[in-house]
Design a protein that fits this description.
- The protein is mainly beta.
- 12% of the residues lie in helices and 32% in strands.
- The chain has four helices and nine strands, in the order βββββββαβαβαα.
- Strands 1, 2, 3, 4, 5, 6, 7, 8 and 9 form a nine-stranded mixed beta sheet that branches.
- The longest helix is centred in the last third of the chain and has 7 residues.
- The relative contact order is 0.22.
- This is YqgE/AlgH family protein.
Amino acid sequence: MRTEDLTGRLLVATPGLGEGVFERCVMLVLHHGDEGAQAVVLNKPVDATIDTVLDGWQEHVREPQVLFQGGPVQLDSALGVVGVVDPALDVDGVQQLFPGVGVVDLDTPADQVMPHLTGVRIFAGYAGWVAGQLEGEIRNGSWYVVDRLPGDVFSDEPGTLWRRVLRRQPGRLAFVGLYPDDEDYN
């Protein structure tokens, strides 16, 4: 049984967490419930423009205007995370996940929804956990759970997000952001 709802919070990989997409990643939890959790990796851009996988959205995507690897699940699908101008407004084609952030139906014409959005980021795939799995990984020390700031979701410098998120944390957690890229230099 989960103890708290992590929806809207950040999962920050601990320095020892594997290689690949989860290495030094910062993930935004899109949903967390009794059945499991879903999140997207915010700091793993890939060398592909949006137009290579999706028509009509390239010009609306925030910098850097590239596709992001959202996680290891369903890499052949695209997910659009958006900032919403007015969280009280119900926008056709946008499902709000928590205040100010939602998921856009990418079949909706971009020009129809863009007046109501502050930003768009397109992800290939997502990360997912079955019931209790994420909580176990947190207990085992794979993830730090921290609050997000408004600029985290659409950071124009995703390569530095892991360090920046950790450095702003209180106490000893801020020092983790100084952890060297190569453990041999520690």
